[in-house]
């Protein structure tokens, strides 16, 4: 039996207790990492504390499509390993802030997926519990915006018992076909 099925069988109080314990465990695991991180659907930002007075030339930062390595030259790596997902290398960067914080910005290749962790060997977070910030349609790229607008339209249509955008397209195509072929009898035709 899977743990998800077990979870469904718990009472409300038991679920709340388990969620609280999971949150506390997750927070402790994340706090033990040598960096802090946050994410949005399209990007990940990592903050790595470095000794005060560190200069950019003292750092050894390697960002690759599926790997990340961070350290001070001549010393053991602060973090190194395989990224949990691929990134857009050309849009990912790092900078040193106040000679004490290394800021790494990674652009996700798949902008529709939450990351469980940064490096595959580090503890995972429960991405099902992420509550994204509200965004405006104008913040989205053209393709994503079109997809969201279509979904919103289709949901409204369904709630009113009206055809979705795909169903409307099928109806329009059928009307055009009928107009182009008046010799055919469509009196018993159904759209599915």
TrEMBL record:
Keywords in alphabetical order: Cytoplasm
Annotated spans, Disordered: 1-31
Start-end of Basic and acidic residues biased regions: 1-28
Organism: Suillus fuscotomentosus
Localisation per UniProt entry: Cytoplasm
Purpose of the protein: Required for nuclear movement. May interact between microtubules and nuclei and/or may be involved in the generation of force used to move nuclei during interphase.
Alphabetical list of InterPro entries matching this protein: CS_dom (IPR007052), HSP20-like_chaperone (IPR008978), NudC_fam (IPR037898)
Protein name (Swiss-Prot/TrEMBL): Nuclear movement protein nudC
Cellular component, GO, one term: cytoplasm
Major location category of this protein: cytoplasm
One Gene Ontology biological process: protein folding
GO molecular function: unfolded protein binding
Domain CS: 30-119
SUPFAM superfamilies in UniProt: HSP20-like chaperones (SSF49764)
PANTHER family xref list: NUCLEAR MIGRATION PROTEIN NUDC, NUCLEAR MOVEMENT PROTEIN NUDC
Gene3D superfamilies attached to this UniProt entry: 2.60.40.790
């Amino acid at each position: 039996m899977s743990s998800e099925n077990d979870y469904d069988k718990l009472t409300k109080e038991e679920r709340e207790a388990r969620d609280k314990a999971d949150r506390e465990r997750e927070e402790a695991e994340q706090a033990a990492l040598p960096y802090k991180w946050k994410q949005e659907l399209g990007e990940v930002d990592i903050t790595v504390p470095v000794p005060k007075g560190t200069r950019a030339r003292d750092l050894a930062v390697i960002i690759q499509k599926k790997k990340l390595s961070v350290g001070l030259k001549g010393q053991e790596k602060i973090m190194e390993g395989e990224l949990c997902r691929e990134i857009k290398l050309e849009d990912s960067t790092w900078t040193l802030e106040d000679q004490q914080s290394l800021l790494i910005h990674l652009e996700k290749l798949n902008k529709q997926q939450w990351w469980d962790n940064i490096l595959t060997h580090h503890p995972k977070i429960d991405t099902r519990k992420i509550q994204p910030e509200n965004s405006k349609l104008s913040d989205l790229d053209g393709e994503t915006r079109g997809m969201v607008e279509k979904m919103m339209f289709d949901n409204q249509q369904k709630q009113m018992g009206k055809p979705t955008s795909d169903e409307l397209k099928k109806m329009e195509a059928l009307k055009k076909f009928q107009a182009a072929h008046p010799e055919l009898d469509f009196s018993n035709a159904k759209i599915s």
